[in-house]
Amino acid sequence: MHALRLLSRGLPHLRAHEPGKVQPRGRAALARAVAEGKLEFTPAVRDEAFLCLDCKACSTACPSGVRVGTIMEFCRSQAQVFHPPSLPAGMLRDFILKRMLPSPALMETSMLPARLYQRLGLQWAARRLGINRFLPGVLAKMEGILPTLAPPLRQEIPEMIPALGKKRGRVAFFLGCAMSLVFPEVSRQTARILSQQGFDIVTPKDVKCCGAPHLAEGDRETARRLARINMDLFLSLGVDFIVTDCAGCGCALKEYEELMEGQDDHERVLRFRAKIRDISEFLAEVGIRTEELLPVPLSVTYHEPCHLVHGQGLSGPPRQVIRAIPGVELREMKESSWCCGMAGSFALKELETSLRILERKLANVRATGADLLVTANPGCHLQLAWGVRELGMKQPVLHVVELLGRSLPA
Amino acid sequence: MLSRTVIDHLRQKVGAGNVYHEREDLLVYGYDATPEIVGLPEVAVFPENREGLEAALEVSRQEGLAVTPRGAATGLSGGSTPTVGGMVLGLTRMNRILEIDEENLTATAEAGVITVDLFNAAAARGLFYPPDPGSQNVSTLGGNVAENAGGLRGLKYGVTRNYVMALSGLLYDGTEFIAGNKCVKDVAGYSLRDLLIGSEGTLGIITEVTVRLINPPQDKRTLLAYFRDIRTAGEAVSRIIAARIIPATLEIMDKTTINCVEDYAGIGLPREMGALLLIEVDGHPAVVAEEAEGVRKILEEVRADVIRQAANTEEAAQLTAARRTALSAVARVSPTTILEDATVPRSRLAETFTEIERLKEKYGIRVATFGHAGDGNLHPTAVTDERNREEIEKVHAFFSDLYEKVLSMGGTVSGEHGIGIAKKGYLLRQFGEGGIGVMRRIKKSFDPDGRLNPGKIFFDEGVSAGLKIPGVTNG
User: Fold this and answer.
1) 3-class state of residue B100 by DSSP
2) Is the pLDDT of residue B465 over 70?
3) Reported ipTM exceeds the 0.90 cut
4) Which of A275, A295, B233, B354 could bond to B275 as cystine, CB 3.0-4.6 Å?
């Protein structure tokens, strides 16, 4: 057990005086006890597996290389076996994981009510009247966190976008669900940047959900099904790189190797894995062409998504991209790599804890006095933007590519 | 099993959120950082203040529970592992720094304060709390005191004992004690304070600690030396000490350790070398320059293969960090890591290394050796798997033989990790029945019923008499 003894430091919502089972060492101990038959897989064990943010900060901190986040994900999949949800809850879960998420068309349809709600001015009215105050916590958060929606990008973006200027190569763009549905403007910028930087872009319409929600919820079976489809699709495009602008997708795609162990042709999975790049990782690798960039004279501070800094070990590249933009002043916030509290659906399931974590993050943001708050993941983006609005802070929230997009010539 | 009434009573007195009795919760308080030694308490209580602690103790007395005090549980000898069920009494929620007295140059803190937090609080006032055990980012002051923790700076600055001025706390029977004060000199009565330091939670429960602070060093220089043969490194250490140079830090890492650390940190350590020495001299700039030169000369004399000076504070910090994570980096290699704490007089270092190499070959096991060479305090660490019983037997035999040699050289079986459960058998070898007998009498005078952290340090006739310890023969 001492491999994990040094871990309570530097993890987002843990202090050393927190109960033992909340700490990574404790959670791993519980999992081990269950595996060795010393403990039943009780509801408490299940709860701990889901209370874990899965921010993977422990993996970054652990010199002994123990990946507690992965252990927790596995526990979650076992939780379904030991404690199957009630019939309605189970049906909803199955619907979302097995029917809705794997079907882009179904997801796009399901967004229509929310879009109508906004387009018809209902959201504006509801917010003016302060109706959120009367809603149960979860609904209030869900309502509040949704930004103004635009038509999903997946249908609109051309399957093939040509490079501008001197061509440097050809890449595939993995358009994630959240990006397409909730932040289409951001992904539009990603495509715009890739093109401006000299790359042909292929964006297949048949892309499926990367499987990140399934991994987080413990449905490894559906995750594998989606992985196979995505690997078939993207390996057939004949590109050297598969680029994504969602840290959550990037992390899940890079986890396919482990997910598919013993289930698929290992060499094929490795080939797929070798091509995956986060957009900042990609730009840092190929080098950013800066000759045409226009100055953006603003100060920014950068929140590091867990699935980028811990999940993919990428801390330098996003900063490299920010620094490449002329005129931008990067102000580092304290605890930049601490979780924002979104953690997938954690923010909706554990409102109190999520809020505590968010408040600490935003206090650090405020302390920088920066003009803009920049991040690289839709989940973080939603959570931070909601928090900034609720607390009346001045900083708009942008994705790194939106910042770079401002610098591109029209 | 404790009754519902007792649990409710505890919840009421100590705070509902501070009492744990469900199996999932108890399980995670059944271990510290020592492999193979695991227990299970009946209840775990984390008082936030003195009143809560007193109430918890009262309940223990009423129910006849053994009490095991617990800090961050990063200990390496089983000191905070509950051996006979009972109550785990956690001090981590009593974690306030109460005062930094800049006139008397002292700091007073509750036992649950994390070591590095105390260091930082003192540094913010331009003062220095030197003891820096490897676990300092996580371990608590109370735990440091109970084990008399050392650290990388121990060679020059001493250990926790050298900084404790006063301790307050409770005995198992509820008697309050205050041992020591802010006086620089005090010879009134027996020094109960000194008896409590290093008593591993078996004599009293420490709730508050007053430490002395000193001036931070003005300058520092970090040197690195690589050796093809680890015995030459041992030679270098002995000569540095003989030359009357006392570096702040004089650490060693053998080849196995170097490779584990390099796998984790990737900072460019030389994988083919037999050993490296990390040497830090600090103090007044003129002294630092002189000492650094003196060290360098000795390294050249023994013909170290490479001698380097850290170019800047960043590189120096990187190297020190690499040394601090040595244990954890070694722990990556294999599921079970058993490290020991053999300490010898410095003149016998080279001999000890020879013996370690010889025994490694004899038993055919993997051992990474690193540690505070300047103190003669080595941590030979077996890299193994507790599920491989055959190999574990060999590991235990290895350490048994090693300690035989260490004791014959006038060494000790524990330089800084304490005896806890893991080294009870070795303690008997070091002190004999007579010595242990005196210790038992002292224990009895503090804790007549033997309920405070039973089963630790020496075999007793009480509740834990029949306790079996892996790899150690009883009595």
Assistant:
1) strand
2) no
3) no
4) B233
Residue B158 backbone dihedrals phi, psi, to 5 degrees: 90, -170
Beta bridge partners of B97: B109
Residue numbers in B near A25 (CB within 8 A)? 28
CA dist., res. B171 & res. B157, Å (int): 31
Structure tokens at A266: 């290992």
CA gap A283, A296 in Å, rounded: 19
Q: Which of B20, B27, B116 to mutate to test the interface with A (most CBs of A within 10 A)?
A: B27
Q: Are A207 and A104 in contact (CB under 8 A)?
A: yes
Find the mean pLDDT for residues A235-256: 95
Of B150, B114, B152, B144, give the one whose Cα is nearest residue B323. Answer: B152
The continuous run of DSSP H or E covering B43 comes out as: strand B43-45
Q: Which amino acid is at A149?
A: L
What does the domain layout of chain B look like in residue ranges?
Answer: 4-90, 97-212, 219-408
pLDDT at B106 over 60: yes
Fold of B4-90: 3.30.43
Question: How many contacts, defined by CB atoms under 8 Å, are there between A and B?
Answer: 95
Does A298 contact chain B (CB < 8 Å)? Answer: no
- Cα B47 to Cα A238: distance, rounded to the nearest angstrom: 63
| Domains A153-285 and A293-407 fall in the same CATH topology | yes
Lowest mean pLDDT among A38-52, B231-245, B299-313, B460-474: B460-474
Q: Which residues of B touch A26 (CB under 8 A)?
A: 28
Listed in sequence order, the DSSP H helices in B266-388 are 285-301, 313-324, 326-330, 349-363
Res A11: pLDDT:
56
Could you tell me if A42 lies within 8 Å of chain B, comparing CB atoms? Answer: yes
Instruction: Please give the class, per CATH, of domain B219-408.
Output: alpha beta
Better-predicted residue by pLDDT, A88 or A376: A376
Averaged confidence pLDDT in chain A: 87
Q: What percent of chain B has pLDDT over 90?
A: 73
Per-residue pLDDT tens digits for B344-399:
998 888 889 999 999 999 999 999 999 999 999 999 999 998 889 999 999 999 99
Please report the sign of the dihedral spanned by the C-alpha atoms of residue A211, residue A215, residue A217, residue A221. positive
Would you tell me which CATH number, out of the four given (3.30.1490.20, 3.40.50.1860, 3.90.1210.10, 1.10.260.40), belongs to the domain A153-285? 3.40.50.1860
B13-57, pLDDT tens digit by residue?
999 999 999 988 899 899 998 877 889 999 999 999 999 999 999
Question: Among all chains, which residue has been given the structure tokens 């007195």?
Answer: B13
Closest residue to B329, CB basis, from A16, A29, A63: A63
pLDDT digits (tens, 9 = 90+) for A169-197: 999 999 999 899 889 999 999 999 999 99
Structure-derived torsion over alpha carbons of residues A334, A335, A337, A341, reported in degrees to the nearest 10 = -120
- Round to whole Å and give the CA distance between A39 and A35: 8
**Residue B167 host element (H or E):** strand B164-170
- The dihedrals phi and psi of A15, each to the nearest 5 degrees, come to -120, 160
Q: Which of A39, A64, A67 to mutate to test the interface with B (most CBs of B within 10 A)?
A: A64
* pLDDT tens for each residue of B400-441: 999 999 999 999 999 999 999 888 888 888 888 899 999 999
Task: Specify whether the backbone of B455 is left (phi greater than 0), alpha (psi in -120 to 50) or beta.
Answer: left
Contact A30 B28 (CB under 8 A): yes
C-alpha A400 chain-centroid distance: 14
Structural domain boundaries in chain A: 2-82, 87-145, 153-285, 293-407
**CATH number belonging to domain A293-407:** 3.40.50
Q: Where are the alpha helices (DSSP H) in B172-254?
A: 192-196, 230-242
Structurally, at CATH architecture level, domain B97-212 sits in: 2-Layer Sandwich (3.30)
A261 has pLDDT over 50 = yes
The reported pLDDT for the residue numbered A14 is 54
Report how far residue A334's alpha carbon sits from residue A357's, in angstroms, rounded to the nearest whole number.
14
